[in-house]
């Protein structure tokens, strides 16, 4: 190799003079930076495709030269491995070891030699190809020519075509690099455009605190980017939207639609329709931190798919999912605040009353208003009647009705102690319901009414519309009924305390102060009434003879006889000691005498040990000049005193108007 040729291939590291097809180029000029591009030994394992493409281009450019007609060409790697070229050279190199190639790689100089074997009688030339800057051998060009041409001339032509190939290689390298730069530039521009779109999109999304507005913004933004696309949003949440493109996502095991698969798998899904539709369906999950809330479903023509920025659409769907989640949380927090306020107001108003009837009526009214139901019915188990009693209902025809505790939907909830949501009574009917049938309702929500940890009743709410009540309705009803149950428990406790205060613990009769209150109340509304005062004869002698425990037993027996002899509306009380009193509202003196006589006879026959009683009776009516509780008691007491002095076991009416004596 000549010195000029050597300089053309090599340059010292850091040199400002580099070789290319146009001659020396000053490397410090900015416009030549691309021509200073070079490869390093680290790139050698990856440049085979580039060398092969450069070889084909070099063959096309050199096709008309005499050398191409008389020579066979091949390219070897920097390690002497076959890359591309004529088949006879391949066969030759595979069949024999030629020293020309190894000598070229070791000396890094062009070498010529005589062919052997299948190439015997030919000239074999090998020329190393050097990198621009560091002069590393990155390939070896091999030529085979006949002996018709001088070996030196063959080597010179090979070196010349090697330089041409090297120029083709670096030109190809520059093209590839420039193409990569253009791709990077275009990608950067797309990224800037994408970021600009996302910035404006996210900015608009983050100012939305309404769930519907978030969904509308997501759809409108996609349509603005791709006007020809068909866009739909399938939502899995229990959310109704007035937007025509927002639809419920219904899942069935037989469905294989794109949006269903997207929702189930949580990944972007593309489905290309078969001809002749030429339609492509794209499903993009719209999710947040807590899960996937819906699917953005886009349909475009197949020809428009390459222009679709699927990554941008995925980012927009994710942003929409996050905004939807935030708006939903904001909506739920406001709803919770509203519910807490309602519960607080309800509790305050419930606690103002300790009367059960008022509590039931107020609870019925508030439940109708809060849950916007058509009908509300509150059932309480009545132990005396042995069934569920309607204590409050805006369906007046059911008021005060008593149902068996295992009847209908109310009985089902009462026994199961579990709430019930009924979406369509006509389609699913776990039990009969007079409330549902008489009000022509379709939806129902019911929950057990718990008082002090025990189920004491049922609350039923109905509506004519199907699928009216939601999980939020169920949750709110449970919260409200728990507070209603507390208020009822307080009222029950108050009633029990009042009952205990108004009752005599030994006889279970009313106390005297309660009797006074009730007589006074009756005197303000009735036309007449009678009072019977009953005294056990010789009760001190019974205590002295049989003991006080037996005396208490006698007192209980007499009290039981009195209670079972009188009407339900009559008021029996322990007046003091062994004296009992019975007030008979609306009865005159003659009727009172009959009641007293029945009591006297039963006591003498049914007590053990046998005792007798004496009775004093007084009455009042609206014609009396003076009507008072004190005068009524005084007159009855005087009559009793007279009966005692008259021999006991007898009945005496006030002022001795009548007397019944027994022998």
TrEMBL record:
<feature type="domain" description="GGDEF">
    <location>
        <begin position="527"/>
        <end position="656"/>
    </location>
</feature>
<dbReference type="GO" id="GO:0043709">
    <property type="term" value="P:cell adhesion involved in single-species biofilm formation"/>
</dbReference>
<dbReference type="GO" id="GO:0005886">
    <property type="term" value="C:plasma membrane"/>
</dbReference>
<dbReference type="InterPro" id="IPR050469">
    <property type="entry name" value="Diguanylate_Cyclase"/>
</dbReference>
<dbReference type="GO" id="GO:0052621">
    <property type="term" value="F:diguanylate cyclase activity"/>
</dbReference>
<protein>
    <submittedName>
        <fullName>GGDEF domain-containing protein</fullName>
    </submittedName>
</protein>
<dbReference type="InterPro" id="IPR043128">
    <property type="entry name" value="Rev_trsase/Diguanyl_cyclase"/>
</dbReference>
<dbReference type="InterPro" id="IPR029787">
    <property type="entry name" value="Nucleotide_cyclase"/>
</dbReference>
<dbReference type="InterPro" id="IPR000160">
    <property type="entry name" value="GGDEF_dom"/>
</dbReference>
<dbReference type="Pfam" id="PF01590">
    <property type="entry name" value="GAF"/>
</dbReference>
<dbReference type="InterPro" id="IPR003018">
    <property type="entry name" value="GAF"/>
</dbReference>
<dbReference type="GO" id="GO:1902201">
    <property type="term" value="P:negative regulation of bacterial-type flagellum-dependent cell motility"/>
</dbReference>
<dbReference type="Pfam" id="PF00990">
    <property type="entry name" value="GGDEF"/>
</dbReference>
<feature type="region of interest" description="Disordered">
    <location>
        <begin position="1"/>
        <end position="21"/>
    </location>
</feature>
<dbReference type="InterPro" id="IPR029016">
    <property type="entry name" value="GAF-like_dom_sf"/>
</dbReference>
């Amino acid at each position: 190799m000549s010195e000029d040729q050597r300089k053309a291939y090599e340059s010292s590291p850091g040199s400002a003079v580099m070789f290319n097809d146009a001659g020396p180029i000053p490397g410090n000029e900015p416009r030549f930076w691309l021509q200073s591009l070079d490869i390093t030994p680290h790139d050698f394992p990856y440049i085979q495709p580039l060398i092969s493409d450069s070889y084909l281009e070099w063959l096309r450019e050199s096709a008309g030269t005499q050398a191409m007609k008389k020579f066979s060409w091949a390219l070897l790697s920097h390690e002497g491995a076959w890359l591309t070229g004529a088949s006879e050279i391949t066969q030759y190199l595979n069949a024999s070891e030629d020293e020309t190639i190894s000598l070229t790689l070791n000396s890094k100089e062009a070498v010529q030699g005589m062919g052997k074997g299948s190439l015997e009688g030919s000239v074999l030339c090998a020329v190393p190809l050097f990198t621009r800057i560091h002069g590393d051998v990155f390939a070896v060009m091999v030529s085979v020519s006949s002996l018709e041409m001088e070996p030196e001339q063959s080597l010179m032509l090979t070196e010349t075509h090697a330089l041409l190939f090297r120029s083709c290689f670096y030109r190809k390298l520059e093209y590839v690099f420039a193409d990569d730069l253009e791709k990077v530039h275009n990608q950067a521009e797309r990224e800037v455009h994408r970021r600009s779109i996302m910035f404006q999109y996210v900015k608009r999304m983050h100012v939305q605190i309404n769930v519907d507005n978030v969904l509308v913004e997501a759809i409108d933004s996609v349509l603005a980017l791709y006007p020809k696309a068909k866009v739909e949003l399938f939502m899995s949440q229990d959310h109704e939207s007035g937007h025509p493109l927002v639809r419920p996502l219904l899942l069935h095991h037989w469905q294989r639609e794109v949006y269903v698969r997207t929702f189930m798998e949580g990944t972007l899904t593309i489905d290309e329709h078969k001809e002749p539709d030429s339609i492509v369906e794209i499903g993009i999950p719209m999710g947040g931190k807590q899960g996937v809330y819906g699917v953005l479903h886009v349909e475009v023509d197949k020809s428009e798919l390459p222009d679709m920025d699927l990554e941008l659409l995925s980012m927009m769907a994710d942003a929409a999912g996050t905004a939807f989640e935030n708006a939903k949380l904001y909506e739920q927090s406001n709803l919770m605040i509203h519910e807490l306020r309602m519960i607080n107001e309800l509790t305050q108003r419930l606690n103002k009353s300790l009367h059960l009837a008022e509590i039931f009526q107020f609870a019925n009214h508030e439940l109708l208003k809060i849950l916007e139901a058509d009908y509300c019915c509150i059932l309480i188990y009545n132990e005396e009647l042995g069934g569920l009693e309607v204590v409050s209902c805006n369906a007046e025809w059911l008021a005060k009705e008593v149902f068996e505790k295992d009847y209908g939907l109310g009985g089902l909830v009462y026994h199961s102690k579990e709430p019930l949501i009924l979406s369509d009574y006509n389609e699913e009917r776990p039990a009969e319901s007079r409330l549902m049938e008489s009000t022509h309702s379709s939806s129902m929500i019911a929950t057990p009414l718990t008082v002090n940890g025990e189920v004491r009743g049922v609350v039923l709410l109905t509506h004519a519309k199907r699928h009216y009540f939601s999980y939020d309705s169920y949750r709110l009803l449970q919260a409200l009924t728990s507070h209603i149950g507390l208020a009822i428990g307080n009222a029950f406790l108050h009633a029990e305390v009042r009952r205990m205060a108004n009752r005599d613990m030994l006889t279970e009769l009313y106390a005297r102060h309660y009797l006074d209150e009730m007589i006074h109340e009756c005197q303000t509304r009735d036309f007449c009434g009678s009072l019977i005062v009953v005294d056990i004869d010789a009760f001190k002698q019974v205590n002295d003879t049989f003991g006080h425990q037996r005396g208490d037993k006698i007192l209980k027996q007499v009290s039981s006889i009195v209670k079972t002899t009188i009407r339900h509306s009559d008021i029996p009380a322990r007046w003091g000691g062994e004296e009992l009193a019975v007030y008979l509202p609306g009865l005159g003196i003659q009727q009172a005498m009959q009641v007293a006589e029945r009591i006297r006879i039963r006591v003498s026959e049914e007590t053990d040990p046998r005792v007798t009683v004496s009775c004093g009776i007084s009455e009042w009516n609206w014609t009396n000049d003076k009507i008072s509780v004190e005068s009524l008691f005084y007159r009855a007491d005087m009559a009793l005193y007279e009966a005692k002095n008259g021999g006991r076991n007898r009945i005496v009416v006030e002022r001795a108007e009548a007397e019944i004596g027994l022998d």
